[in-house]
Design goal:
The structure is a single chain. The protein has eight helices and eight strands. It is α/β, with parallel strands linked by helices. β7, α6 and β8 form a beta-alpha-beta unit. The chain has one domain: TIM Barrel (Alpha-Beta Barrel), CATH 3.20.20.70. The model has no long low-confidence stretch (mean pLDDT 98). Helices cover 34% and strands 19% of the residues. α3 runs parallel beside α4 and α6 runs parallel beside α8. The structure holds D-xylitol-5-phosphate and zinc ion. It is an enzyme of class 5 (isomerase). InterPro entries: Aldolase_TIM, Ribul_P_3_epim, Ribul_P_3_epim-like, RibuloseP-bd_barrel. Keywords: Carbohydrate metabolism, Cobalt, Isomerase, Manganese, Metal-binding, Zinc.
Length: 218
């Protein structure tokens, strides 16, 4: 699949979300929305009401990354609200298969995320339940952190597992993805790239997205 870019609005201006989404809407594929509850991660960000509002204003589909406890309760509501992709954390979900199926049944793409130190192999048998596997390349919670190179071998292994099963699962990397690191991620097999600081920290966010895409395409 051609590389896709999902700019994270965690690094955008929270008082001007519609404007910051519009700034990248001609060049990006998704808008990455980081939902944090101050329990699963030590930060508090956006919730369902803001996602509902964004859905009305965003020309791009929303890629909602739920860094929250009890995703089994909340994820279906994001999907029912109209979010086009909903990703839950394996470390937080108590009934991941049921929740992933509920997300799909509501018409959204289902995503499963794992933290840098969580192995991918235990999830091999449920790859058929998901549309996207998200490998965190920083510890979740904050934008602007340093990319963790130690995750790259796992990106490679995940790509092999997906290929081995011949599944159309997208492989997303999130955290510290930038002009310096995106090529290594693409080479390891990632095809969906989240970038917060590298996009919204740039003088021209749209140009930054285009450059990242070119680099990811190799
Ligand atoms: C971190 C979030 C990321 C974050 C990425 O917990 O999940 O999506 O916004 O930001 P950068 O690209 O700045 O590392
Ligand atoms: Zn994220």
């Amino acid at each position: 699949m051609a590389p896709q870019i999902s700019p994270s609005i965690l690094s955008a201006d929270f008082a001007n979300l519609a404007g910051d989404v519009a700034a990248i809407s001609d060049v990006a594929d998704w808008v990455h929305v980081d939902v944090m509850d101050n329990h699963f991660v030590p930060n508090l960000t956006i919730g369902l009401p803001v996602v509902r509002a964004l859905l009305k204003h965003s020309p791009l589909p929303l890629d909602c990354h739920l860094m929250i406890e009890d995703p089994d309760r909340w994820a279906p509501q994001f999907a029912e609200a109209g979010a086009q992709s909903v990703t839950i954390h394996a470390e937080a979900a108590k009934a991941p298969i049921r929740t992933l199926r509920t997300i799909r049944a509501a018409g959204a793409r289902s995503g499963l995320a794992i933290n840098p130190a969580t192995p991918v192999e235990p999830y091999e048998d449920i790859l058929g339940e998901i549309d996207m596997l998200l490998l965190m390349t920083v510890e979740p919670g904050f934008g602007g952190q340093k990319f963790l190179d130690v995750v790259l071998p796992k990106v490679r292994r995940a790509r092999e597992l997906i290929k081995g099963r011949d599944l159309p699962v997208w492989l997303q990397v999130d955290g510290g993805v930038s002009a310096e690191t995106i090529e290594r991620c693409a080479e390891a097999g990632a095809d969906v790239f989240v970038a917060g600081n590298a996009v919204y920290g740039a003088e021209d966010p749209a140009e930054a997205v285009q450059k990242l895409r070119q680099q990811a395409a190799g």
